[in-house]
From TrEMBL, chain A:
Protein name: Formate hydrogenlyase subunit 3/Multisubunit Na+/H+ antiporter, MnhD subunit
One MF annotation (Gene Ontology) recorded for this entry: lyase activity
Compartments, record wording: Cell membrane; Membrane
Lineage, highest ranks first: Bacteria, Pseudomonadati, Pseudomonadota, Alphaproteobacteria, Rhodobacterales
Membrane topology reported for the UniProt record: Multi-pass membrane protein
Any one GO CC term of the record: plasma membrane
Automatic annotation (TrEMBL), chain B:
Record protein name field: Membrane bound protein complex subunit mbxF
Residue intervals passing through the bilayer: 64-82, 102-123, 129-149, 170-190, 196-214
GO-annotated cellular components: plasma membrane
Membrane topology: Multi-pass membrane protein
Keywords: Cell membrane, Membrane, Transmembrane, Transmembrane helix
MrpA C-terminal/MbhE domain location: 23-79
Domain Na+/H+ antiporter MnhB subunit-related protein: 103-220
TrEMBL record, chain C:
Compartment(s): Cell membrane
Pfam families attached to this UniProt entry: Oxidored_q2
Record keyword Transmembrane helix present: yes
Name the record gives this protein: Multicomponent Na+:H+ antiporter subunit C
Alphabetical keyword list: Cell membrane, Membrane, Transmembrane, Transmembrane helix
Similarity section: Belongs to the CPA3 antiporters (TC 2.A.63) subunit C family.
Predominant location: membrane
Organism taxonomic ancestry: Bacteria, Pseudomonadati, Pseudomonadota, Alphaproteobacteria, Rhodobacterales
InterPro entries referenced in this protein's UniProt entry, alphabetically: CPA3_antiporter_subunitC (IPR050601), NUOK/Mnh_C1-like (IPR039428)
Cellular component annotations (GO), alphabetically ordered: plasma membrane
Record membrane topology: Multi-pass membrane protein
UniProtKB/TrEMBL annotation, chain D:
Domain annotation MrpA C-terminal/MbhD: ranges: 15-80
Protein origin, superkingdom: Bacteria
Keyword Transmembrane helix attributed: yes
Transmembrane segments: 6-25, 32-52, 58-78
A single Gene Ontology CC term: plasma membrane
UniProt-listed InterPro entries: MrpA_C/MbhD, Nuo/plastoQ_OxRdtase_6_NuoJ
A family per Pfam: MbhD
Compartments, as annotated in UniProt: Cell membrane
Protein name: Uncharacterized MnhB-related membrane protein
Keyword annotations of the record: Cell membrane, Membrane, Transmembrane, Transmembrane helix
């Protein structure tokens, strides 16, 4: 094994020796520089591999042939080796990124870069306090030098501001070091830790030392100086500044705080949390990409600092958590900075230029997912373990603040991603070349590799190693294939997976599985209507299905949560594909993440830090915690089912999605929330908090959702929006059923799982088909399509009959069970709401068929054809199924009924032949079908007989009698169709919830705008901020520590 | 004004912290364990009577290597900073001292003496106060003097750069030799310790001192020249 | 003695910091920082000082055998040497920056260099 | 420790603080630089008193000597630049 000292020696020796090579042969100089960096990286990697595989022990390297504390010593353990590898590799890639500048400036610039990488490596390895100071100064000076490589003249100002603050740090650091030395008689970190100190002033000295090191981490708000560097420096260098310097500075804090003692940890936690949340809030208002990355970097450093503050409770998981966060941050941030070198524009919107290049989009998505901590990246595993440890230690506020910070960070990162996908791409916004792209993709590869490694560590569940997720990766690789071929493969994959697993499921899971997996395959039939390659669709869709598949497979909390996040990520990308869906996809993501965090907290609370924790142990939670677990999980699941109050993401997300995506996210994805509720209630049962039965609360929320969803739906002019609101209403029914906590209620909910999937998918496909032909979703622009699109008409007709719950279709079965269920329950008041939702539902459904298919055909639509075959086919399958299900509900429900019976220990329904009997009456679907069919045929015949009495009317024979109408839509009789009801029910339409969430958004943005005024740009003011920060922390800390 | 008051207040609060340190400060009665070790082993381990030199060259040699690197960085960066901007033509120098005949002659006479003195300080660094830094600074002041005296005369950039690179590289190599032939990186034991208290003793310390002196002198000279130069660098 | 030196050093540090944060002229800021640096050096040396002892140089007057009773702590002195040189490096760098900034705007007022903000 | 040494230390300390105050309050930058150099010079004397001859040599050569000249060189450059 080569000695790690060689990393320092090679870096330094090469930097010095460059002068011997002459200054004219710049290519040679650059080659030597790269070779040296590569050698340093190789040594680091050799050590990393050796330490990770256990081939070697942690190395203690003595200099001067004397043991510490009398001479400086270095250490290389697994953490050091990982950081060294990060630092040197970042340096190597950054040198490539900076190649143009380095070649222009010659050996000076290259030497500075080499020394910088050497110094950061030294900072990682050294165990001596004063040596830390020397390396910090080297890093600071080299930073001030490399900042000048930027073409941006503002970088000069930034460099000076940086130097001013470096001076202050140096002063504090030196005073701290010398008094620590005085108190301990040693400069060696381990030695200081080993000897107990009683000397006066030791705590204060330690404070000065720590605060100086913390300021190196650019804590909010004393960090204006660092942000200017991010903004103005060359991105190749910013990558080092963020990824390498930042990580090393964190490690130094970690090193020093170990001997300093646990009493300093709360202080670090506080500073870290303030920095994390504060920086992220300010970042919300940024529109310069690099400055935004700067704020994000600063925030991430704060997060890890807060994690360092938790080392006392993290125990063995400390390295895993902190390392996962640090490496995710380093790789993602370096990658994003290198990407920004490829982009010409500096506005966030200018990143739309990457849209034309699918690999770039993949890279961007990878980096963002890494930063936010989504699977399969290390940050995700780290977040999970961190949450477990924090909850186990009772540090809920810390967890809460961290999750809040992550949510805010997700807000601006995903908004940015939305810009990249949806905004207008600037002309020639990319200056892509092989090298810059290569560097970026090296970071992408690093990110995925880290994801694999973090999952593969013993005791973890490797998300990447599961079959569904591997399928997603395969679909990423298959992107160049034509869409039709990929569609065949996707359907095959879904059906194959179902064939593999269906035997293992209990009847309830099986129902969900059928809806989600083969159900998804049926909807995918509609995707055959798409042509071209449809880049991005299949990986996203398969990620969503993979998440759903894994959700059903999940046995432990972790598996469940990982599946949940995979599903969320995939569905976000799917929704974002819609033409106008940018804001809606963002709000979907934020609500989903917020809900997921509620789940995370709930799971952590339930398991109390014990891992792995099986899902069916949920029932063993202590009575004290159970209601809180119930609340958190319920909130998480209800965000997915879009219960009233948490619903505002749904209408836009579902309505603006693509034709074949709407049924997926509506018909299938919403069921994931229901599945979660089932799992939860099955284990936890009824819980009450402060004397309130929580299931009753759920029932109320369900009833209100059912009612208000329906009310909002009737006033929609956009057909897809109408269906979206209807989904809220329908999920409300299901939620109500589940919350009844009795046999029939659950059966009702199961019925809704099936029914809602079928008719909502069908209706969305039908409306999507109409949209494809008419290019509008606004109902008042349509009419009379019945003759042109008869198949679509049939499916809408069948759909609304099924949905409105009138006989003979399966919706009636739902109603029938439903009425039985509520007779069993003792909730009378929400019943009224639920009852009223029924007729209101009929109002909006009526509009759907009446406005689109009946009435006058519009002029632009005269040449329309039926919807494409591939859109009609699944609709016909659904229609056939609905009729069959109406006749024979037993085929699916009887087994579930038995299963639910085994849970509740009763059997209120008696299945006899074709008829079902309850204590309140009986239902014979076949008989009803026959009766209805007879009545229908009779009425139909009468109508045909009287048809000759009807008179044809020209379309515009009355409307244009006077002047030209100012707003053309007002001339359509169906516009604002339910205006009379508005008078009565308009008050229910007041967007209270939307205003509330809007207020939250405005408030946070206002805070961001206010806070960022703090950054005046004056270097002296920034220095004053630093001093103010030190003094403020001093006053706080001396109150707590000394 | 408010700004000054606020900053004054903050500085005063920091002063309170410092006051705590001062008022609670008790000088050690005995050398602490680190210092005691150095005192006891200066002869046997590094062979240098000047313990400070022994510490900076050997025991804390990594610091010193870093410190030399700080100067190297600074001079490289200053050259970069100034090479990006063209210097105006015109009178040069600080303009404080007239570069008269007397000064020129004096400088020419003094320069060798200063160089000799610098060499002495460097070579005796392990015996008496002084060493590589101090000697290097003295060497640089010789360069400074001749810059002041003869602003138009320019030292060969290449010569300084060569000295700078050579001494730096060699320093690192000596350090590596310590790893190969003695106890570790920068161990001075690669050469025999010799007789305690003589010029050629203390192992590689004199050698390293020379390298440090050359390096520091070259870096300082190059910084001074960069900042002083009248023409474009 | 050590207390005097400590107090002096701290006063210099505080004075330097105050000057650096209130003086808007960039050159004067740098001057103030050099004063603060000097203060730090004084503090460092003061911490190693022990009354009634001699410099850490072994010679006829201070043989090795009694060295640990006679000399003061050499470590802070070694640190200060390093700190002084590093301080000079940073000062030189700041001066070079000051020159660049002056070329940029023909001004040395720090409040004129604020186009990067928010 | 002799009272003489203590007195000497006190005088040097006061001189340093005095020079520092001059450096901070004076209007002329040249004076400020010279005063700062003086602070360093006094410091190096102080180091001798504190039994740190190595440090004293370094402070004198680097802190008060070279640094001061660096200032003057840069100020000269800036002045010429300003005259342009």
């Amino acid at each position: 094994m080569v000695s790690p000292v060689l990393i320092i020696a090679i870096g330094l020796g090469t930097a010095f020796a460059l002068g011997l090579l002459g200054s004219t042969r710049k290519t040679l100089l650059f080659g030597v520089t790269l070779a040296a960096l590569a050698a340093m990286a190789t040594i680091s990697l050799i050590w990393l591999v050796a330490l990770a595989t256990g081939a070697t022990e942690t190395a203690e390297i003595h200099t001067a042939g004397v043991a510490p504390p009398f001479a400086i010593n270095l250490r290389v353990g697994i953490a050091e080796a990982a950081l060294l590898a990060t630092v040197t590799l970042t340096g190597l890639l950054a040198a490539l990124s900076l190649r143009a500048q380095l070649l222009t400036l010659g050996r000076g610039g290259m030497a500075v870069l080499l020394v910088l990488v050497m110094a950061i490596s030294g900072l990682v390895m050294t165990r001596d306090l004063f040596n830390i100071f020397v390396f910090i100064e080297l890093v600071a000076i080299a930073t001030a030098g490399l900042v000048l490589l930027s073409e941006d003249t503002r970088a000069v100002c930034a460099g000076f501001k940086f130097l001013v603050v470096s001076q202050i740090i140096a002063i504090l650091l030196l005073v701290g070091i010398i008094f620590t030395y005085h108190a301990n008689g040693s400069l060696n970190i381990d030695d200081i830790g080993a000897t107990p100190v009683a000397a006066q002033g030791a705590a204060l000295a330690m404070f000065l030392l720590l605060i100086a090191l913390v300021i190196e981490l650019k804590p909010f708000p004393a960090n204006g100086w660092a942000l200017d560097i991010y903004t103005s420096a060359h991105p190749g260098f910013s990558a080092i500044f963020s990824a390498a310097t930042g990580s090393a500075a964190l490690f130094v804090v970690d090193k020093v705080v170990a001997p300093a003692g646990a009493e300093w940890l709360p202080l670090l936690t506080g500073i870290g949390l303030l920095s994390f949340v504060g920086s992220n809030v300010v970042a919300l208002r940024q529109d310069n990409d690099r400055r935004l990355l700067g704020y994000s970097s600063v925030g991430q450093l704060g997060l890890v600092l807060a994690v360092i503050g938790q080392r006392d409770v993290l125990g063995d998981a400390y390295l895993y958590v902190a390392g996962g966060l640090v490496l995710s941050h380093a790789v993602a941030k370096a990658g994003l900075f290198w990407m920004s070198a490829i982009l010409r524009g500096r506005k966030l919107q200018d990143w739309a230029a990457i849209r034309a290049r699918a690999p770039m989009v993949l890279a961007f998505a990878t980096f963002i997912a890494m930063l936010v901590g989504l699977p399969p990246f290390p940050g995700f595993y780290a977040k999970w373990d961190l949450a477990q440890a924090l909850v186990a230690a009772g540090r809920l506020p810390v967890l809460g603040l961290i999750l809040l910070g992550v949510l805010i960070e997700a807000a601006y990162l995903f908004r940015w991603f939305g810009f990249a996908i949806k905004r207008e791409a600037p002309e020639s916004g990319l200056s892509a070349n092989m090298v810059d792209c290569g560097i970026t993709f090296a970071a992408v590869a690093g990110g995925w590799a880290l994801g694999w490694i973090w999952g593969a560590i013993p005791g973890q569940h490797n998300v990447l190693a599961t079959l569904p997720v591997l399928a997603v990766v395969a679909f990423i690789a298959l992107e160049p294939l034509p869409a039709k071929l990929k569609n065949v493969l996707a359907i095959a994959a879904l059906l194959g997976w179902f064939a593999l697993v269906y035997g293992d499921y209990d009847p309830m899971r099986l129902i969900f599985a059928v809806v989600m997996i083969p159900g998804g395959a049926v909807i995918l039939l509609a995707s055959f209507s798409e042509t071209g390659r449809r880049i991005g669709f299949y990986p996203s869709a398969m990620a969503m299905y993979a998440g759903l598949a894994l959700l059903l497979e999940a046995n432990t909390f972790f598996e469940f949560f990982a599946a949940w996040e995979v599903m969320t990520l995939g569905s976000y990308f799917l929704i974002l594909r819609g033409r106008m869906s940018e804001p809606h996809a963002l709000s979907y993501m934020l609500f989903s993440l917020g809900g997921a965090f509620a789940l995370l907290a709930g799971f952590a609370l339930a398991s109390g830090g014990v891992q792995p924790f099986a899902l069916d142990q949920l029932g063993t939670v202590t009575a004290e915690l159970a209601p809180w677990v119930f609340v958190l999980l319920a909130i998480g699941f209800m965000t997915k089912t879009a219960a009233m109050g948490l619903h505002i993401w749904l209408p836009g997300a579902h309505a603006e999605a693509e034709t074949d995506v709407s049924p997926m996210v509506s018909g299938i994805l919403l069921k994931a929330g229901l599945f979660g509720l089932f799992v939860m209630l099955m284990q936890l049962g009824r819980q009450s908090l402060w004397g309130v039965d929580l299931t009753v609360v759920l029932a109320w929320i369900g009833a209100i959702s059912a009612f208000l969803g329906a009310v909002l739906s009737i006033f929609q002019e956009d057909a897809k929006r109408l269906l979206a609101y209807s989904s809220i209403s329908q999920m409300g029914y299901a939620l109500f059923g589940v919350a009844l906590m009795n046999h029939l209620g659950w059966l009702l909910a199961m019925m809704f799982v099936i029914n809602h999937y079928v008719y909502k998918s069908m209706l969305f496909l039908a409306v999507g088909g109409v949209y494809k032909r008419t290019h509008t979703k606004l109902m008042y622009q349509m009419g009379g399509l019945i003759t042109l699109m008869p198949f679509t008409f049939v499916s809408v007709l069948v759909g609304i009959i099924a949905m409105s719950g009138v006989p003979p279709l399966s919706g009636f079965g739902g109603r029938w069970i439903f009425y039985n269920a509520i007779m069993d329950a003792d909730l009378r008041l929400p019943l009224i709401l639920i009852f009223m939702a029924g007729p209101i539902g009929f109002l909006y459904l009526f509009r759907l068929i009446h406005t689109i298919f009946l009435g006058q055909l519009k002029d632009p639509h005269r040449q329309l054809k039926e919807a494409p075959f591939w859109l009609v086919l699944p609709q016909m399958i659904f229609a056939a199924f609905l009729i069959a299900f109406a006749v024979l509900p037993g085929m699916a429900l009887q087994r579930v009924d038995g299963y639910i019976g085994s849970i509740f220990g009763d059997q209120p329904l008696i299945w006899q032949g074709r008829a079902i009997t309850s204590e309140f009456g009986y239902w014979n679907p076949v008989a009803i079908m026959v009766v209805i069919a007879v009545v229908f045929v009779a009425v139909f015949l009468i109508l045909i007989a009287k048809n000759h009495d009807a008179q044809k009317v020209k379309q515009f024979n009355i409307v244009f009698s006077a002047e030209r109408p100012y707003r053309p839509e007002t001339t359509h009789f169906a516009w604002n169709f339910f205006a009379p009801y508005r008078k009565a029910m308009g008050i229910l339409e007041t967007p209270v919830v939307t205003s509330f969430w809007g207020g939250v958004t405005d408030g946070v943005n206002g805070a961001a705008e206010f806070t960022r005024r703090f950054y005046t740009g004056n270097g002296q003011t920034y220095a004053a901020h630093v001093l103010l920060f030190v003094v403020a922390v001093y006053l706080i800390a001396m109150g707590g520590v000394a | 004004m408010i700004r000054k008051v606020v900053i004054g207040l903050m500085v005063a609060l920091l002063g309170v912290a410092f006051w705590t340190l001062t008022s609670g400060y008790v000088p050690d009665a005995e050398l602490n364990r680190t210092a005691a070790y150095y005192a006891a082993n200066a002869e046997s381990e590094v062979g240098a009577p000047n313990i400070v030199t022994g510490i900076i060259v050997t025991w804390r040699g990594l610091d010193t290597l870093g410190e030399v690197t700080v100067l190297f960085l600074t001079s490289a960066i200053i050259a970069l900073v100034l090479s990006q901007s063209k210097t105006p033509k015109g009178a040069s120098g600080a303009g404080l001292l007239p570069s008269g005949e007397l000064l020129v002659t004096g400088a020419r006479m003094l320069a060798p003496l200063i160089a000799l003195f610098g060499a002495y300080v460097i070579m005796n660094g392990h015996l008496t106060p002084g060493g590589g830094f101090q000697g290097g600074a003295i060497l640089a002041s010789g360069v400074l003097l001749s810059l002041l005296a003869e602003p138009s005369r320019r030292f060969g950039h290449t010569v300084i750069a060569r000295i700078e690179s050579f001494s730096g590289t060699f320093y690192v190599l000596v350090g590596l030799a310590g790893m190969a032939y003695a106890g570790g990186f920068l161990d001075n034991g690669i050469l025999p310790l010799g007789r305690f208290g003589t010029m050629l003793s203390a192992g590689a310390i004199p050698l390293i001192s020379i390298l440090i002196g050359l390096k520091v002198g070259a870096e300082f000279s190059s910084i001074l020249e960069s900042l002083h130069e009248t023409e474009d660098a | 003695m050590a207390q005097i030196a400590l107090a002096t050093g701290f006063v210099l540090i505080l004075a330097g910091l105050y000057g650096a944060l209130t003086n808007r002229d960039i050159l004067r800021m740098i001057v103030a920082f050099t004063i603060a640096d000097t203060g730090v050096n004084v503090v460092l040396v003061a911490v190693g000082y022990m009354p009634g002892r001699t410099a850490p140089i072994l010679d006829a007057a201070v043989p090795v055998a009694v060295a640990s009773q006679r000399i003061i702590d050499p470590v802070p002195q070694a640190l200060v040497l390093t700190a002084i040189v590093i301080g000079l490096g940073i000062t030189a760098l700041m001066l070079a920056y000051a020159y660049r900034l002056f070329r940029l705007r023909h001004s040395l007022d720090i409040s004129n260099f604020t186009e990067l903000k928010w | 420790m002799s009272t003489l040494m203590l007195g000497l230390g006190l005088v040097i300390a006061l001189a340093m603080v005095g020079a520092a105050v001059v450096a901070l309050v004076t209007r002329s930058t040249v004076t400020a630089v010279l005063a700062a150099g003086l602070v360093s010079l006094f410091a190096s004397v102080f180091f001798v008193v504190l039994a740190a001859p190595d440090v004293a040599m370094t402070e004198a050569a680097i802190g008060s000597g070279l640094t001061t000249f660096l200032f003057f060189f840069v100020m000269g450059r800036i002045r010429r630049e300003g005259e342009k």
